[in-house]
Amino acid sequence: MLWSAIVYTGLVVAAIGLIFVVKPIERLHVTTRWQGLAIIGIGVLLVGIGLNAPATESRAKRVETRLDEFVPVWQFSERHTISVAASPERVFDAIKRVRASDIALFKTLTWIRRGGRRLPESILNASDTASLLDVATRSGFIYLINDPPRELVVGTMVMGPRGSRGTLTPESFKASLPPGYALAAMNFVVRPEGPNASIVSTETRVFANSPESRRRFARYWRVIYPGSAIIRRMWLRAVRKRATASVSGIGMIHQSESQPKVEEERQSEGDQNEARR
Questions:
Q1: Which of 9-13, 175-179, 202-206 has the lowest mean pLDDT?
Q2: pTM for this structure?
Q3: Per-residue pLDDT tens over the stretch 139-155
Q4: For residues 174 and 128, what is the distance between their CA atoms, to the nearest angstrom?
Q5: Which label site among 68, 126, 170, 251 has the fewest CB atoms less than 10 Å from its CB?
Q6: Structural domain count of the chain
Q7: Looking at residue 254, what is its pLDDT?
Q8: Is 268 domain-assigned?
């Protein structure tokens, strides 16, 4: 995402400028601390531009997924895809079983996101006793669609006006809400790709329904986007690992079940040969 890249480029530039303030490096043509301060200023300017750039709106041209039904318009999104050597049924089952400990860097990144604070169980502080989707749907997320083995969609309210109350329902995503809300939804779509092969995609969309909520969420999104993208990619890899491990496990079971039959057949053939002699 362009604006997130600009934010983090600005942070790197500012950090380099701080180094030059501490110790100017003549061979890099930075001879005074004032030059270091100027570099910091450039970095801060880039961060400000990246955080405050206006968010553009996207719209689904036609309904291709169930996510399109619930979030047809959005300002913030990300999408990732992976190939899995397993049937859609096994992949869908793996999606629902993946736990936080299965996802590389998940606990590290969510620990950073919550600032190391101890929080009640949630998507930011998920235990290993339940699947990540189970944790999410009992701590703020709701199922919008659960259509095995094709698509699963969950949603949550990420921002609301002060004093807002009420229960989030699937209908909330299709209703016209008062200004100040930002609703997020994420799906997993499984498509068959030949025998025992699937394409799995996950997409996250956020719709903020007022200029103020868009500005506020844009700053948050552009900071957390790199970590969010890493988590989504690692999540898909965890799904692939679970799904293909299930296939391998079944193959081993079939092999172990067939082995005694082979031994019995060999023994029977040996007995028949012995009788002929």
A1: 175-179
A2: 0.86
A3: 999 999 999 999 999 99
A4: 33
A5: 251
A6: 2
A7: 46
A8: no
In a domain, 274, yes or no: no
Rounded mean pLDDT of 117-126?
Answer: 94
Same domain, 111 and 94: yes
In a domain, 73, yes or no: yes
* Residue 275 within a domain: no
| Spatial contact of 120 and 126, defined as CB atoms under 8 Å apart | no
For residue 3, pLDDT beyond 90? yes
Q: In terms of domains, do 15 and 123 share one?
A: no
pLDDT value, residue 165: 76
219: CB partners within 8 A, 6+ apart: 51, 52
Pair 135, 127: CB distance under 8 Å: yes
Coil, helix or strand at residue 186: strand
The SS3 assignment for 165 reads coil
Residue 42 lies in domain: 2-52
Task: Report the C-alpha gap between 1 and 28 in whole angstroms.
Answer: 31
Is the preceding omega at residue 149 within 30 degrees of 0, hence cis? yes
13 and 62 together in one domain: no
Helices 2-22 & 33-52 angle (0-180, nearest 10): 160
The enclosing domain of 154 has a CATH number of 3.30.530
| pLDDT one-digit tens code per residue, 18-77 | 999 999 999 999 999 999 999 999 999 999 999 999 999 999 999 999 999 999 999 999
Residue 28 CB neighbours (<10 A): 10
Q: Are residues 146 and 9 in the same domain?
A: no
